[in-house]
């Protein structure tokens, strides 16, 4: 095989591998056209909304709750941990939300416990500092995180009163992203 043909064959193979890698990245990392993954990227899933999975967590007193216990109002569901600086940065936004919209939405903050790096004590220290008084639920088994495919935190999910995920934010919320999510779940 001559040198020119080898070079051309190498370029074709490289092109096929490159296009395949982009396709796999889109499907596996970004999530393709799946409604939840589109919402992660800031797109409204519209008619293809995904039902919000139910799960069980407990409060500081060990009382168990299901997400469906909060379906009387739209839900802002936030996954966090005390060792996560970005999770702590967004706490004031959730505190304001709780103070200003307690009659309109249910704020469900789920702390992801692991027993070593994250404990109930470390979580309680984080939510009681700086005048933060947010009710927190604890995911000791990972059931909630698994149900929402949480692989990095913080994650905030906006669920309407019909029980459908309307918007999802990976990373800390800010005033604009929180407002956009709220606009999507309020009637």
Describe the structure.
- The protein contains seven helices and eight strands; from the N terminus they run ααββββααβαβαββα.
- The protein is α/β, with parallel strands linked by helices and 187 residues long.
- It folds into two domains: 1-30; 35-185, 3-Layer(aba) Sandwich (Glutaredoxin), CATH 3.40.30.10.
- The strands form two sheets. Strands 1-8-7-4-5-6 form a six-stranded mixed beta sheet.
- Strand 7 and strand 8 (164-170) form a beta hairpin.
CATH architecture descriptor name of the largest domain: 3-Layer(aba) Sandwich
Structural class of the helix and strand makeup?
alpha/beta
Domains, number: 2
Series of H and E elements: HHEEEEHHEHEHEEH
Q: Total strand count, please?
A: 8
Physical arrangement of strands within the biggest beta sheet: 1-8-7-4-5-6
Tell me, briefly, the overall form.
elongated
Helix tally? Answer: 7
Going by CATH, the homologous superfamily of the largest domain would be Glutaredoxin
Q: At the first level of CATH, what is the class of the largest domain?
A: Alpha Beta
Mean pLDDT: 82
Please indicate the percent range of residues in DSSP E strands (runs of 2 or more): 15-25%
Compute the CA-based radius of gyration: 21 Å
CATH topology category name of the largest domain? Glutaredoxin
The main β sheet shows up as: 6 strands, mixed
* Low-confidence segments: 26-47
Distance between the termini: 68 Å
């Amino acid at each position: 095989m001559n040198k020119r043909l080898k070079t051309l064959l190498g370029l074709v193979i490289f092109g096929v591998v490159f296009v395949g890698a982009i396709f796999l990245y889109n499907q596996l990392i970004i999530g393709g056209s799946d409604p939840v993954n589109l919402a992660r990227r800031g797109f409204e899933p519209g008619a293809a909304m995904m039902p919000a999975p139910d799960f069980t967590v407990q409060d500081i007193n060990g009382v168990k709750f299901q997400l469906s216990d909060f379906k009387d109002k739209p839900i802002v569901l936030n996954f966090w941990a005390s060792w996560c600086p970005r999770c702590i940065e967004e706490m004031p936004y959730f505190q304001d939300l709780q103070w200003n919209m307690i009659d309109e939405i249910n704020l469900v903050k789920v702390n992801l416990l692991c027993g070593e790096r994250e404990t109930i004590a470390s979580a309680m220290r984080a939510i009681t500092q700086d005048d933060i008084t947010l009710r927190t639920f604890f995911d000791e088994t990972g059931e909630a995180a698994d149900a929402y495919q949480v692989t990095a935190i913080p994650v905030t999910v906006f669920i309407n009163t019909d029980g459908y995920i309307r918007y999802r934010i990976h990373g800390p919320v800010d005033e604009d992203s929180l407002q956009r999510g709220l606009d999507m779940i309020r009637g």
